[in-house]
Design brief:
By secondary structure, the chain is α/β, with parallel strands linked by helices. The chain contains 13 helices and 24 strands. The strands form 6 sheets. It has a 4-stranded mixed sheet, with helices on one face. The protein has a 4-stranded mixed sheet with strand order 2-15-17-16.
Length: about 425
């Protein structure tokens, strides 16, 4: 186990390059199962979730390795030509939520699959019934038994699918399943996140025929085979958003490079209500802090293009030191408030009533030893530690490593006093 040790109070200043999107890389890796050839994914940070997905691919019979590329991070080489296994065991799926994406791609290529229920952060029920319902609608026979999903697609068909909710995972699973089917499949009410567009572009780069990602209808015309390709994923809007919030909290001037500004418009509109100044360009954003931030008012999470649930926890850290009251409402995941108790340990004034969190910003909060509840909640605790008086120890940071690569190194280069240390569990000798 490792922890972050943070001494708060330093101002952040300088440039930071945003990595490729975790939420693009995982479905892209699942989609590589469909490709009868070699692929190279450029500029891949070694998120622990990416490494876990590589283990799944290797179990299925693929070859993966990191190779030198032309960007900051290494490229990832993947060869799925010898895919033979059709099962994803529990010891692999329990480590990453996105293991469920392999269901559609394995079925699309092999027509049979056995996939254990997925793991990942505990932020709520996150049911996969929408995935299952959509695949059944396309002719798959699916049985849930003893923690595994058993699926057979020998009678698969192409037709229209209406999703009951614009689920990102269900949209991606249907896209991957339909790529190699005969005929046309249309997905109505799909998720519209930028990562959906990225998956479409990756699969099309390999020879798929998909149109409409990012709109209300996605159209997939089945092809016989996918071929080798090289692809560079989009940058991570959630990492970019996290650094923007850090800039609003304790930045002098931060320059975020390798960003797609339009992907963070909801966040930027909220941050502009504080005292910071933001200049957004096509591939970089400049944020300038201007003293203690004012309250941003209200944030309510929603599916894209609404405010992202993956930035909700980080907004708590900002609200906790902003002048005035802020309201945060989580509408997508019922258990995504676990960071609140840890922030309260740091002196944050947070009240929860009828599904609404009311944060009374304080001029000063203090350091404490806190435990990471999940990936984004951990990022929130790090941000709070950057502005807290004294020192903060953030434990269980393996959860943060799922979606932030070399987080402490990037913050240190900007002026933060943060380092990774070995976690030593304290023993209570009181009787």
């Amino acid at each position: 186990m490792e922890s972050f040790y943070i001494v708060g109070g330093n101002k952040l200043e300088g440039e930071v390059e945003i990595d490729s999107a975790k939420n693009s890389l995982l479905p892209i890796l699942a989609g590589s199962i469909l490709i009868d050839g070699e692929i190279v994914i450029e500029n891949v940070p070694k998120y622990s979730d990416v490494l876990a997905m590589c283990k799944i691919l290797e179990h299925l019979g693929a070859k993966t390795k990191f190779i030198k590329g032309k960007f900051k991070n290494e490229d990832l080489y993947v060869d799925c030509r010898d895919i033979s296994n059709c099962d994803v065991p529990n010891e692999l799926s329990c480590k990453v939520r996105s293991s469920i994406f392999t269901l559609g791609s394995i079925l699309g290529r092999k027509e049979i699959a056995k996939v254990a229920f997925p793991g990942g952060c505990d932020i709520g029920l996150r049911p996969i019934d929408i995935h299952i319902s959509a695949l059944k609608h396309l002719g798959c026979k699916i049985v849930d038994k003893n923690g595994y999903i058993y699926a057979n697609a020998s009678k698969k068909r192409s037709q229209d699918v209406m999703l009951s909710f614009p689920s990102v995972g269900a949209t991606e699973n249907v896209m991957m399943f339909a790529v190699l089917n005969d005929g046309e499949t249309r997905i109505f009410n799909p998720a519209r996140e930028p990562e959906i567009v990225d998956l479409q572009n990756f699969l099309n780069c390999a020879g798929a025929d998909i149109k409409g990602a990012g709109s209300n209808v996605i159209v997939i015309n089945g092809v016989k085979k996918l071929h080798s390709c090289t692809y560079r994923p989009i940058s991570d809007r959630i990492e970019a958003g996290t650094f923007l919030i850090a800039g609003a909290m304790c930045g002098r001037e931060l320059v975020l490079k390798n960003v797609i500004s339009k992907h963070n418009q909801e966040l930027i509109s909220k941050l502009l209500k504080t005292t910071c100044k933001i200049e957004a360009y096509d591939d970089n954003i400049i944020i300038k802090g201007n003293g203690r931030p004012q309250s941003f008012g209200e944030v309510e999470t929603a599916v894209y293009p609404g405010f992202p649930t993956d930035l909700q926890a980080q907004m708590f850290a900002l609200a906790s030191i902003s002048e005035g009251y802020s309201l945060i409402i989580e509408t997508l995941f019922e258990s995504r408030y676990k960071h609140i108790g840890e922030l309260i340990k740091m002196g944050c004034d947070i009240k929860f009533k009828n599904g609404v969190c009311i944060i009374n910003g304080k001029e000063k909060i203090h350091g404490a030893e806190v435990d990471t509840p999940d990936l984004r909640g951990g990022a929130s605790l790090v941000l709070a530690g950057l502005v807290a008086e004294g020192y903060t120890t953030v434990n269980n940071i393996q959860l943060i490593d799922r979606g932030y690569y070399k987080f402490e190194d990037k913050l240190s280069l900007l002026g933060a006093d943060i380092k990774r240390i070995k976690y030593e569990k304290k023993v209570d000798n009181c009787n």
